[in-house]
Amino acid sequence: MSLKKPEKKPRVSVIIPAYNEEKTIARCIRSLVEQSLDSSEYEIIVVDNNCTDKTIEIVKLFPDIKIVKESNPGVGAARYRGWQEARGDIIASTDADCEAPKHWLKKTIHYFDTHSDVVAISGGYLFYDRDFVINIIVRIFERSLVTLSWFLAGGVMALTANNMAVRKSVYDKTTGIDKNLQFGEDLNLAKKMHTYGKIKWLFHNRVKTSARRYQEMDLSVVPYFLNFLSMSARDKTWRNRLDNIRK
């Protein structure tokens, strides 16, 4: 009689909330499956936030991806649900329209292993569907926004949900991600994590994402910016309305 070996606990849990992301989800999952980190070291969890398209069918084409359901709409609720399922020592977060560089998770683990006083890290992003010039502008603008958020938040370094990671042991000491927030759940979490240690921004560990929300640069981007300012300064959303983002 053979005894089944206990399942190895992953170092990292990667959480991806998804709502009707059939056009981008495969790219995201593929980039995570192809990480330089050994597959036994991390798990991937996709949160189905009421998808009505082929998003979940596509996710099921990849082996060993855990899918959980969250019926309450909104990214706060979806992330909260996914983070509840995390088994890793580190919880990493990205979005369904992102693409992680090959060494994303390896760099994340290394940074935590070599900086014991750091409780959370975050990094920026570049657009995979815009040209070189736009991405140069993004790099410059990113540093300005990080500095502005740090100033408005009274010295709390920001986290951005499409590229952040936290120590689960510290996260569990907080009230966690606010599942009622539809904007700014990452900035809200940063202020909670800051109580327990340092938060660092890694400019050398960016992900790539889609510029779809900014393609036309019309008034639809205004709520994002106003919520960013409001969450940084007051820890309150300017307008917590789901219809601004679910079109």
Blueprint of the fold:
Elements: E1 12-18, H1 25-33, E2 42-48, H2 55-59, E3 65-69, H3 75-85, E4 90-93, E5 98-99, H4 104-114, E6 118-127, H5 132-152, E7 164-167, H6 168-171, H7 185-194, E8 198-209, H8 222-234
Parallel strand pairs: 1-2, 1-4, 2-3, 6-8
Antiparallel strand pairs: 4-7, 5-8, 6-7
Helix pairs in contact: 5-8
Please tell me about this protein's structure.
The chain has 247 residues and is α/β, with parallel strands linked by helices. It has a single domain (12-244), classed as Spore Coat Polysaccharide Biosynthesis Protein SpsA, Chain A. 34% of the residues lie in helices and 21% in strands. The protein has an 8-stranded mixed beta sheet, with helices on both faces. The chain is globular and about 45 Å long. 40% of the residues are buried. The model has no long low-confidence stretch (mean pLDDT 91).
Task: Please give a quick description of this structure.
The chain is an alpha/beta fold.
Q: What is the element string, with H for helices and E for strands? A: EHEHEHEEHEHEHHEH
Main pleated-sheet profile: 8 strands, mixed
CATH topology (level 3) name:
Spore Coat Polysaccharide Biosynthesis Protein SpsA, Chain A
CATH superfamily: Spore Coat Polysaccharide Biosynthesis Protein SpsA, Chain A
- General shape: globular
What is the CA–CA distance across the termini? 56 Å
The percent range for helix content is 25-40%
What's the CATH architecture? Alpha-Beta Complex
Instruction: List how many beta strands DSSP finds.
Output: 8
Count of domain modules: 1
Structural class by helix and strand composition: alpha/beta
* Biggest sheet: strand arrangement: 3-2-1-4-7-6-8-5
- The percentage of residues in β strands lies in 15-25%
